[in-house]
Amino acid sequence: MPSFIALASLFWLTCLSLISAAPFSYGNNRLGNGFPTVANPSAQLTAIEAAAHGSLPDGPAPPSAPSSNSITSLRLISFNELTEVAFFTELIANITNNVAGYTFDADRSKQHMLTILTAIQAQEELHELNANEAVTKFGGQGPVQPCQYNFPVDNLKDALALASTFTDVVLGTLQDVQNLFGTDGDIGLIRGVASVIGQEGEQNGFFRFKADKIPSAVPFLTASTREFAFSALNQNFVVPGSCPNIGTIDLPIFDPLVIETQNIQPQSQNIQFSIIIPTGGIPSSWHSDCSGLSLVWINQQNTPIVEKLQNIQIDLKNLRITFETQFPFDSASFGNGLTIAAVTNSTGPFATADTVAADTIFGPGLIEIN
Ligand SMILES: *[C@@H]1O[C@H](CO)[C@@H](O)[C@H](O)[C@H]1NC(C)=O
Ligand SMILES: *[C@@H]1O[C@H](CO)[C@@H](O)[C@H](O)[C@H]1NC(C)=O
C-alpha cells in the first residue's frame, strides 16, 4: 500500500470527475441542531457538548477586545471549522447510508467508526462555536457564515487520508495563530488554541493509524501559515462564490500550485508542477523566462528550502507553465510528514513559513509522506 499522497494533484483530478455530486450545504438545518446557529446556553448546545464528551470553555470572555489581526485569526479558525464540520457530517452520512466506498464488512466496525467520527464532528462544532462567539462579540462584522463545499473523495480510505492532510495544515497554521496572538499581545487566547492543537493531534493520530502509518508523524510538526490554510480551503473545498461574507476574512487566496507528479515516493527526486499564467501575461517581476520565481519547500520546523525552477515550459496558448524542482527527501532530515510547496517571486533566503507566505504567488502544494 502506498504510504504517500500528493493531494494537490489528487484534488484537481478528482474535482473534475466528481463534479456531479451535489455540494454540501448547511441549509434546511442539515445537522438537525441548528448548527452553525446555536445559542449559548441552549438545549441544542448541551446536546452537542454531550456528543463531544465535553464543554465549551465556561470562563469569562477576555476583558478587552483582541487586536484586529487576532480577530482575523479567529475568523479563519471559524471558516476552517465550518469546513471541517461539513466534511465530517458528510462522511458520517456516507457511512451511515452505506454509500458505495463507505461500507464495512462487519456492523461492529461500522458502529465503532461512527462512534469515533460523531465525537469528532461534535468537537469540531464546539471549536467553531467558540471561535465564532469571540468573533461576534468583538469583531463587529458578525459571525463567519458557512459556504457550500465539495470534498474530492469518494471512499473511506481517501476521506481519512484527506482528513489527515487538512488536519496537518491546521496543526501547522495554529502554530502561526499562537505566534501572532503572542506578538499582538493577546496572550489570553493562546492557552485555548494550545488545547485545540493537542486535540487535533489526537484526531490525526487516528487518521494516520487507519492509513497504516505510525500515529505520530515527525518530532516537530510542519509549520504553516494562515494564508496557506485559507488558500488551501478555498482552492480545494469551497464552492466558488458560495460564501456570504468571506470578504470579512482579511487574508489572501493564492493561485493554485498543482503537483503533477503522482505516487510520490520517499526518495530524493524531481517533482513536476504546473501554474497558470495570470490574465495580463507574465509579470515583469517573474522575468520573461520565469527565472524570477522560486519553489520553496517547508517541512517540519526547519529553515525553508529554496529551489530553482528547472525544465520550465511556458505554454502561452494555454496560459500554463510547467516546471520541475528537486524534492530533497531524506528520512532523517527532510520530507516526512506534511511538506508545503510554494512558488515565490523572490529567492529568499526565508527564515520562517511566514516570510515564505509574504512572497508567495502560487500555493500551497501539499505532499504527505510516511
Ligand atoms: C460522500 O460520498 C459522495 C458520493 O460518493 C462523495 O461525492 C462525497 O465526496 C463523500 N464525502 C465525503 C466527506 O467522503
Ligand atoms: C512578490 O509577491 C508579493 C506577494 O504577492 C508581493 O507583495 C510583492 O509585491 C511581489 N514583489 C514583486 C517584486 O513583484
Q: Kindly state the number of beta strands.
A: 9
Helix content: 40-55%
CATH secondary-structure class of the largest domain:
Mainly Alpha
Content-based structural category: alpha+beta
CATH fold type of the largest domain: Ferritin
Instruction: Report the order of strands and helices.
Output: EHHHHHHHEEEEEEEHE
Total number of helical segments?
A: 8
Biggest sheet details: 5 strands, antiparallel
CATH architecture of the largest domain: Up-down Bundle
Distance between the termini: 11 Å
Averaged pLDDT, please?
A: 94
Question: Which strand-content bin applies to the residues?
Answer: 5-15%
Shape: globular
Whole-number total of structural domains: 2
Low-confidence stretches: 1-19
What is the radius of gyration? 20 Å
**Cofactors and ligands present?**
2-acetamido-2-deoxy-beta-D-glucopyranose
**Strand order within the widest sheet?**
1-9-8-4-5
**CATH homology group of the largest domain:** Ferritin, core subunit, four-helix bundle
Q: How would you sum up this structure, described in words?
A:
This is Sexual development protein. Residues 1-21 form the signal peptide. This protein has 370 residues and is of the alpha+beta class. It folds into two domains: 43-248, Ferritin (Up-down Bundle), CATH 1.20.1260.10; 258-369, Sandwich (Immunoglobulin-like). The protein is 40% helix and 15% strand. The protein has eight helices and nine strands. The longest helix has 33 residues, at 107-139. It is globular, with a radius of gyration of 20 Å. One 2-acetamido-2-deoxy-beta-D-glucopyranose (NAG) is lined by residues 18, 21, 87, 90-91, 94, 99, 101, 151, 153-154, 159.
